[in-house]
């Protein structure tokens, strides 16, 4: 039970909850929470699920907590290519295609590209970014891409902010932590203390033009599968009129 106890305590501390806070939320005694964290008590499956709910754990971590307590997982982890997920694949394709002439892509938890629409293929093909590649790796290590990001320092700061938020949601994650450390080693800070505008676009230099984008993220709701819960659709929008016109022209060519 040591692994369960350690995981429970780690998540409670990550959520900045005292044992009493968690006990009140889960409607159990603080003493019982203490016993669970020290291994003096063994949780029921229902208790693990109740604590997971109050700690707002992602599905993969709920499975991990259940496994540590000796129970079967609550959520499956299928691949998007499996037959029964065909409606989801169709929905993803529909969203990406309908977003044209603006770029869009589907990403997993670690920013691996699962699908991208034709406008993004045209923009990112020259720098070697495609399906199965890591967008995060490209943003941090692909010199062809990095050299064409006009406001690279701002983008790295925004990436670090986003990774910090994702780490808070997912808990321990070697991939996210490794990339955060890479950004810190380069001097990136989540905030520099200066006032910021309501939106900071990413500006790419493409074919002699500077195109500016901001993004909107979408996720599927009420899903009971880990892969689907971590699937994100990132839709890029033009941040100025020149970019909008350029994308329409690229789409027509």
TrEMBL record:
TM ranges: none
SMART domains in alphabetical order: HTH_XRE
InterPro entries given in the database record: Cro/C1-type_HTH, Lambda_DNA-bd_dom_sf, MLTR_LBD
Residues annotated as domain HTH cro/C1-type: 8-62
Highest taxon above the source species: Bacteria
Gene3D superfamilies for this protein: 3.30.450.180, lambda repressor-like DNA-binding domains
Gene Ontology MF: a single term: DNA binding
Pfam families with a match to the protein in the record: HTH_3 (PF01381), MLTR_LBD (PF17765)
Protein name, as recorded: Transcriptional regulator with XRE-family HTH domain
Organism per entry: Tritonibacter scottomollicae (Epibacterium scottomollicae)
């Amino acid at each position: 039970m040591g692994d369960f106890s350690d995981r429970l305590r780690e998540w409670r501390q990550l959520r900045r909850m005292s044992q009493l806070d968690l006990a009140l939320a889960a409607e159990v005694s603080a003493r019982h929470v203490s016993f669970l964290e020290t291994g003096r008590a063994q949780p029921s499956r229902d208790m693990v699920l109740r604590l997971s709910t109050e700690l707002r754990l992602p599905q993969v971590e709920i499975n991990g907590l259940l496994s540590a307590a000796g129970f079967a997982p609550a959520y499956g982890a299928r691949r998007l290519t499996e037959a029964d997920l065909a409606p989801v694949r169709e929905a993803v394709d529909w969203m990406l295609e309908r977003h044209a002439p603006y770029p869009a892509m589907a990403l997993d938890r670690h920013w691996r590209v699962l699908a991208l629409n034709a406008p993004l293929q045209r923009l990112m093909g020259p720098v070697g970014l495609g399906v199965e590649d890591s967008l995060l790796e490209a943003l941090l290590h692909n010199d062809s891409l990095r050299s064409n990001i006009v406001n690279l320092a701002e983008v790295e700061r925004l990436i670090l902010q986003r990774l910090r938020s994702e780490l808070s949601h997912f808990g321990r994650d070697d991939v996210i932590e490794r990339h955060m450390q890479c950004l810190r080693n380069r001097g990136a800070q989540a905030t520099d203390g200066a006032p910021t505008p309501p939106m900071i676009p990413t500006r790419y230099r493409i074919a002699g033009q500077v195109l500016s984008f901001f993004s909107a993220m979408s996720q599927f709701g009420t899903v009971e599968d880990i892969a689907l819960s971590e699937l994100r659709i990132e839709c890029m929008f033009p941040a100025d009129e020149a970019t909008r016109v350029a994308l329409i022209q690229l789409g027509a060519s």
